[in-house]
Amino acid sequence: MQSISLYIHIPWCERKCPYCDFNSHPKESSFDESNYVLALVKDIQYSSLLLENKKISSIFFGGGTPSLFQPASFDKILTAINSHSKLSSDTEITLEANPGSFEKEKFVEFKSAGINRLSIGVQSYADEFLSKLGRIHSARDAIKAVEHAMDIGFNQVNTDIMYGLPGQSLKQCLRDLNNAIAIQADHFSWYQLTLEPNTYFYKNPPSLPQHDLLWDMQTQGFELLEQHEYKQYEVSAYSKSVQCQHNLNYWQFGDYLGIGAGAHGKISRFSPFAINRTLKKKHPREYIKHAGTNENEQIESISDPRTLIFEFMLNGLRLNQGVSFELFEQNTQLEKDELIKSSEKALQQELVEHDDEIIRTTEHGKKFLNDAVMTYLP
Fold first, then answer.
1. Distance separating alpha carbons of residues 331 and 228, to the nearest angstrom
2. Angle in degrees, CA 331, 336, 339, rounded to 5
3. What distance in Å separates the CA atoms of residue 14 and residue 31, rounded to the nearest whole number?
4. Does pLDDT of 75 surpass 80?
5. Which of 135, 151, 206, 375 is the most exposed place for a label (fewest CB within 10 A)?
6. Could you read off the pLDDT of 184-212 as tens digits, one per residue?
7. Mind listing the domains of the chain with CATH numbers?
């Protein structure tokens, strides 16, 4: 049975963060939980044929801040999904949550609704840097939220932590990471703050650490996580035991259905083979208005072999273990030799390596990942 993941977008936050380039809106702007949930259910029904005879391997509620919604809303959404493709007990169902007290109080009900993994947007355990990032929670809120999630039985809890923050020193970076490690959550997304277009920080850049300092933060932070048995399995993902199945599906070029305002999807089409990239209406009002109709979705079909190879490697090079040639052939319907030929430049520059079964980024390639990816551009 083929597997598929679902990404479901909730486009509202209490307040837009200055570094965020995701499709999100302040809560006071156009917030309409009940009608938005109805629109999501219509969207799921509209896409139900894509779910038939497929195993749903993961569901991810992203945002925005999905934990602003009531637990009953997620129960309705999961019930709608279950009516078209039976969810199994091992389906990973993640909810992104903020560590504020309002969201924390709903964690038990989220679990009862079927959520079994929380991804908590901590970003920093230092009040000074939370303020600089425009976050509305405190370091104490963050500690309490993560501990509460584990205490009530969430066996899978991810915390998002940033480094390279405005004015941050190496000592402050490592102290932040040590504070995160002390709580003993199972999974970290630990990544560098970058200035993305269409954000407040991009238009009004703060003073960020320079390259040499960022390199020290990255290398010493990696060593610290390794010392505490957090294994890096992707560029910014570290785990003691369970890896995030939803993100692994992205990185392995698996199919996923995008539901919600501005949600992207990737669906394989056969006879002839192509990848359909889908995009839903971006603004919540437009999405609600057109939910359940073909006017709500743009589709781009990709069949060019060089583009398929680029998209496959754009994702696969992020994984420490690499990706198998078998997976490449399965998810692109191309031959192994085509990938090896397209990898000639990266191989010559020692950015990638391969054996009979797997192609992966070298240690040198991990340091220059963007350069490795660019060698595959069509």
1. 35
2. 85
3. 10
4. yes
5. 151
6. 999 999 999 999 999 999 999 999 999 99
7. 2-249 (3.20.20.70), 304-378 (1.10.10.920)
Closest by CA to 190, choosing from 125, 280, 144, is: 125
Give the pair of three-digit tokens for residue 371: 């350069």
Q: Does residue 265 have a cis bond before it (omega within 30 degrees)?
A: no
pTM tops 0.85, yes or no: yes
pLDDT tens digits for range 321-338: 999 999 999 999 999 999
- CA pair distance 93, 79, nearest whole angstrom: 13
| Of 328, 333, 335, nearest in space to 313 by CA | 328
What DSSP line would sit under 131-172, residue for residue? HHTT-SS-HHHHHHHHHHHHHTT-SEEEEEEEES-TT--HHH
- Contact residues for 210 (Cβ-Cβ < 8 A; gap 6+): none
Place of tokens 């007990």: 89
- DSSP sequence for 79-134: HHHHTTSPPPTT-EEEEEE--SHHHHTTHHHHHHHT--EEEEEEE-S-HHHHHHTT
